[in-house]
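ok so i was messing around last nite and threw this chain in just to see what happens. nothing serious, just curious
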Amino acid sequence: MNVPVKPSTSAFSANALPAIDILRAADIFGDAPLIIDDEGVCSYRTAAAYAQRCQPFCRDWRLVHGDAPVALVAAPTRRVLLAVLALWAGRVPAVLLPPTAPELERQRLWQQSGAPQCLDADALSSLAANPVAAQGEAASPVPADTAVILFTSGSSHRPKGVRLSHRAFVASARAHADNLGWRPRDRWVLQLPICHVGGLSVLTRSALSGAAVLLPPAFDATTVLSFSARHGGTLLSAVPTQLQRLLACDRGNELARLRFVLLGGAAP
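result:
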């Protein structure tokens, strides 16, 4: 049996202020795959090139709005993952709005977050191609280490925005490396919403370690299993209800090929 290996510490400690930085990650991991989806493979270097094109917008944003965040509708797509990494490279926090929420609810969450502007991924791609000054009213700043504002599920109360720091994500990635280790070709299946910490952590841990994110075109059990099998998935995060569905659909014993399944959330 192969022994899991830990990622280079250089992926975690290049800054006095730890942060998820795709520009630095590309220097370390180069042409290794970062995102694999139905469009093909997006390497660390390609993601960094996109982030670099977004930096004029990020610089303008910080000049106008300081540490205020940018809101994004967090659809589970390559463009959104790249947009989040690009904002972080420019030290701009992101507010990730749930894509399945009704439009009025998303508007309410956006206003609650204090983000001066809400962009979709297409809008940010346009800004990357043709940088313009950031628009919108000035907003109250968030702490400088804030990476993202996510919203609670609202199961018992109305959803509440929670700030999560770069340090928190880096500490989580370190804990993962210490307890579960990494292998050079690890590929983590993303089937949780990135507007929740479990889904977003698939991206952050992968980007800090040189692993790849497998992004299936849909999150139903059959699609997730077939996509993982086709692209060599080794890791998977799930909540109990998802795992039950995966087990029920797993006719080919694909789950047994994974190195581990990371389970979180309450059981039904």
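not much to say yet. The CA atoms of residues 121 and 158 lie 26 Å apart.
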